[in-house]
Amino acid sequence: MGNRPEMFEGTDTIWMDGEFIDWEEAQVHVLTHSLHYGTGVFEGARCYDTSQGPALFRWEPHLDRLYSSAEPLDHEIEHTKEELTEATIELIKRQGLRSCYIRPLVFYGYESLGVGPGDSPTRVAIAAWPWGAYLGEDALQNGVAVKVSSWRKHASSQIPTNVKATGPYLNSMLAGEEARREGYVEAILLNKEGLVAEGPGENLFLVRDGEIYTPGLSQSILDGITRNSVIEIAEDIGYTVHDNTSISRGELYTADELFFTGTAAEVTPISKVDNVEIGNGGRGPITEELQQRFFDVVDRKTEDYEEWFKYIDV
Ligand SMILES: Cc1ncc(COP(=O)(O)O)c(C=O)c1O
Q1: I need a labelling partner for 87 at 20 to 30 A (CA). Which of 21, 29, 240, 241 fits?
Q2: Using one digit for the tens of pLDDT, what is the confidence trace for 21-39?
Q3: How many distinct structural domains can be found in the chain?
Q4: How confident is the model at residue 67 (pLDDT cuts 50, 70, 90)?
Q5: Is residue 262 part of a domain?
Q6: Mutation pick for ligand 1 pocket among 226, 232, 308 (CB with most ligand atoms within 8 Å)
């Protein structure tokens, strides 16, 4: 299709403000408020091609987070959760997708260009396209080299970190690009206090002496849905998970294992931090076990966690 970027090949429809429209028609005016001030909120969810057919993974928590992200920004989403669910399922079916990434976006359209959105309408769009391993297939196997960013994660007293708003991703973008410029795959951000927060688009886990640690929600992190899933999976296997910790920078270097979680990154091992090898310098055994279990769950090779899936009748 014309000059559609490679990333979006194989998709041709966008849902926007209640209608399915051609990909090329999904455009906004250059004076769109959210384009200028980053006043949108969004989600990233996945549909997995499971052994029982395509299924949305943990759709309700994603939708709940979208609506609660909208609140502090005063967005009033005119569509019900049921409407957005139906639209998403139909979007996937219409495009014949089985496994894809789903991006709902809520943003202020154009009316006023004061920093306050005035009467700018809240608009909603949903896109879905195939998206494989976010940090690369090799990353899932061998882990990624990360850099502790010189940029700090913004504090939740400055911009709420529990909402997924578009503007604050400038912080993530700066950290990620700085890392990539220096040859790393991804970044880790410390919070204002200098403690470990998270990756630019991932939560972080640490393994030490057979127990699992992850920064608590007060450390300026997003309340990740994959984070919660992995905590539950790990506890069900029998691991002790400390999910309200503070982790210092030094503890990263001396960890037995480190890994990222996220809808896009899934469960990605971290092999090196600032060129210091972590554990065996690859995917650690507990990371591998959790990763395997996570993929077994999302592929529906196991019967538990059935309530996490919304099947699409194709
Ligand atoms: C900053 C940030 N932290 C963590 C995550 C992981 O959250 P989730 O597992 O809900 O995708 C994401 C991705 O959405 C993110 O952007």
Answers
A1: 29
A2: 999 999 999 999 999 999 9
A3: 2
A4: very high
A5: yes
A6: 226
Q: Do residue 286 and residue 203 come from a single domain?
A: yes
Residue at token pair 């940090």: 135
Q: Which of 147, 164, 301, 310 is catalytic?
A: 164
Residue of 191, 196, 157 lying closest to 171 (CA atoms): 191
CA of 203 to the centre of ligand 1 (A): 6
In a domain, 313, yes or no: no
Is the C-alpha dihedral spanning 63, 214, 231, 261 positive or negative? Answer: positive
- DSSP H stretches of helix in 107-163: 137-142
Residue 305 located in a structural domain: no
Residue 203 Cβ contacting ligand 1 at under 6 Å? yes
Residues 66 and 202 grouped into a single domain: no
CA–CA dist 222, 178 (Å, integer) = 21
The tens digit of pLDDT for each residue in 254-274 reads 999 999 999 999 999 999 999
105 and 58, same structural domain? yes
pLDDT digits (tens, 9 = 90+) for 132-146: 888 888 999 999 999
222 Cβ below 6 A of ligand 1: yes
Cα separation values, 255 from 69, 178, 210, 273, Å? 33, 24, 11, 10
pLDDT band at 2 (very low <50, low <70, confident <90, very high): low
Q: Is 301 a catalytic residue?
A: no
Please report, for the domain that includes residue 195, its CATH number.
3.20.10.10
**What band does 10 get if pLDDT is binned at 50, 70 and 90?**
confident
pLDDT of residue 152: 98
Mean pLDDT for all residues in the chain: 97
Assess whether 147 and 248 both reside in one domain.
Answer: yes
Rg, C-alpha atoms of the chain: 20
Q: Are residues 141 and 239 in the same domain?
A: yes
Shared domain for 231 and 161, answered yes or no, is yes
